[in-house]
Amino acid sequence: MPGAYAGLLLGGATPYEASLVQTLVLVGLLAAQVIAAAVTVAALSGLGEERPDAVAT
User: CA 12 to CA 14: how far, in whole Å?
Assistant: First the structure.
């Protein structure tokens, strides 16, 4: 969301406050990417393996 910084400045916020909001947006996007990558790796981790047949006891 690159417009958050400029929008806050035009709305009357200080550059410090605008940079805090922009940093929060950046951290949120980074967290979403990390979670998406972890879910993808977890989902694809067992695809190439053959599963053993159930052992009758």
Answer: 7
